[in-house]
Please model this.
Amino acid sequence: MVKRTDPYIPGEQLEQEGLIKLNTNENPYPPSPSVIQAIQEEMKRNLQRYPSPSADELRNTIAESFSLSKKNVFVGNGSDEVLAFAFMAFFEPGKPILFPDVTYSFYPVYAKLFHIPYEQVRLNDDFSLPVEQFFQSAGGVILPNPNAPTGLYEELDQIERIVQENKGRVVIIDEAYIDFAPTSAARLVQTYDNLLIVQTMSKSRSLAGLRVGFAMGSESLIEGLTRIKDSFNSYPVDRLALAGAKAAFEDSEHFSNTTNAILSTRERVIPQLRSLGFSVLPSAANFVFVKHDSLDGRTLYEQLKARKILIRHFDSPRISDFIRITIGTNEQMDTFLDELSLILSSASTVHP
Amino acid sequence: MVKRTDPYIPGEQLEQEGLIKLNTNENPYPPSPSVIQAIQEEMKRNLQRYPSPSADELRNTIAESFSLSKKNVFVGNGSDEVLAFAFMAFFEPGKPILFPDVTYSFYPVYAKLFHIPYEQVRLNDDFSLPVEQFFQSAGGVILPNPNAPTGLYEELDQIERIVQENKGRVVIIDEAYIDFAPTSAARLVQTYDNLLIVQTMSKSRSLAGLRVGFAMGSESLIEGLTRIKDSFNSYPVDRLALAGAKAAFEDSEHFSNTTNAILSTRERVIPQLRSLGFSVLPSAANFVFVKHDSLDGRTLYEQLKARKILIRHFDSPRISDFIRITIGTNEQMDTFLDELSLILSSASTVHP
Model:
């Protein structure tokens, strides 16, 4: 009577007092005061009325900031919903899609849910992308850039080659972390009709709590997503989220200040982790993916959790030795590094 | 490259100044002040953090108000999302489901989207439910009570018979309008493990703009919905919607005051419509479904729109002569009735 599926497991969302939460790549800084003000104004107006099903105002604001047209932009309830709609709109049973073997763990969940066959392309030993292996897919390609949970960034010209070598099939570039990396592929949207860029307001825009994600692509791809949305839920983005997201996009100063703060904390933390005996993968995201010489990932996760610090450990092939640490504020990272030092020194005392 | 689907067409959402909007069954009254206050408090806390994926607090509040447990309650982004998840969780290709021929026009859209075959059971000539024809479905049943767009209510004992006569298949009762009707089937949830009740905060709770819907059912059905949600979008209800919806449920006085106001306006408007030459179906909802002796539905819709009043007309078999009018405030309904009289008298002058 009830279908079985294997759901995606998100990072823990504990609301415990005093917890330092470095496990789900949220922004440690609150959104711009203008976001709060926009929500404040919107909530006094017509909460009893449905929101705009076409979300024109927010789509216009996003489009302008990327020098695109509203017709190239789709918005949804977080980038996860946008990705789910994209799987429904662009991938189909019988035609295997490609994604990396180490990547966002929601992709195989969507694929199974919608009966899309897939092949996982093995990343190189250093977790870099074997670009040519994504050419000539049968059913399309999806990959994050920067990749998660590794944080590795692939240059734009390589992404472009993948798009070029998949004519007639959709290539989805999931840019959840792109604002912490060199260059978005959004500039390619007007050149290639088979490229869909997915971004989120949950990371660099400090709005994980509001659930807004968006996609950019050719008019035909955006129409495809819109048809699925309108066959599923006409109004997935509520009035307050529409207003808050628009204000967040408009305050580019707050955005660049908070992003730069995170980048500078990241660059400060990486050598400190190395000096504690960690290998640190090159990160173009708001997190670092690291492996210790002697302590395994699960132990580190558990010992940090006992000290009220949450990080993410994935019990998956090739990465179970690693932990993923979201970049928090300088103060949070200092506490984290202090606790980590204590864990490591007590471990080396007990097991010399 | 892009899949074709036939989307659901929602009522127009125009934000035009001075428009009287009686077309999408929204509540004419704003939500409780305590809703605004709850959102106000929530938005100052952690908008940069993901909301609770399990929405425990809101589920507890809803459960208490129906004397159920949290494990019997699921919440989602509007009842449309909840319905979409239910189609995915409980219905399957190869086993036709049943729903009425005149009903919520999103059902066939979901069925096509998820490749669920369906049979439309012809309602009786007076649009009442031929109850026995919903017995022994192959794949399950979905029907709204009260039905939309007719507004007709079916007694609880008849709903119970349909549930009993579909053992092992899920019966979904879509109670979007139940708060304007005699009795919810929620009390049957603990007796029948195959009954799912879907409700919304968009109508009687004045929160269409926030996108919150919910379902009540056996633990096993709620687990089934949760697995689909977690395979699609871990956090579909944002922080502000969670907080606002909880406050709305807690203010039962505001809820009963606004609901009673709508019911009393409905009962006042019905005889006035009859005296203007309309047949009015018995309504247990916050709308009336009416047909005029001489003017057809489309003409009435167009002429009212020209006078800045939006109502809903469905160009569908059996109901194209009808119009559906949401019950607004007394003042809005007076304006509506005045304009309607003018349209009817000018029509009878021009075409005597």
About this structure: The longest helix of chain B spans residues 252-275.
